[in-house]
Amino acid sequence: TQLLEQSPQFLSIQEGENLTVYCNSSSVFSSLQWYRQEPGEGPVLLVTVVTGGEVKKLKRLTFQFGDARKDSSLHITAAQPGDTGLYLCAGAQPGAGSYQLTFGKGTKLSVIP
Amino acid sequence: DAGVIQSPRHEVTEMGQEVTLRCKPISGHDYLFWYRQTMMRGLELLIYFNNNVPIDDSGMPEDRFSAKMPNASFSNLKIQPSEPRDSAVYFCASDSGGAGELFFGEGSRLTVL
Q: Is A93 an interface residue toward B (CB < 8 Å)?
């Protein structure tokens, strides 16, 4: 089983600050996804990255897939209270399709007004 | 459009009792997944179905767990007998084949006393 390590585990910041969270593995993934989960709800897909070195932007969120497809980062600019939640990364094993996703344990983000 | 619907949202039961969790996937989605989420282990894939057929149940912890999908609009996950260590949030998710985008339900929080 391929493992995904997410860091930091917890992050508490003030509104308006920037932050970066990380998702690392020693294994290669064919694609990587980021989800956000709010309390009492299921995870919601934010983005999928498939190419090494790929960068995707979603408003104030910037996602990057490492060149070797073993790691990824999520950068949030000018964080807002609505960004609060659990951020999960999930990797698809090469050759197994997206149906064998391995999830990290997540980074719990709190943005304080 | 309705998302993935799970019931019950909360279940409290005593050790040894049978538990049944239910899921209605998004209409037209041909993949259905059951996940379990705990603080210690994060999100774990238990089993997934394609066109109502179980494809991979290697994540099912033991014989006490079983899952069925009698038709395209319904699946259930049963635990018999339940144990305190089964306490977790159980998520159902569906996907339209090939898209690799999981849509999660709101989860069923199970507490086994």
A: no
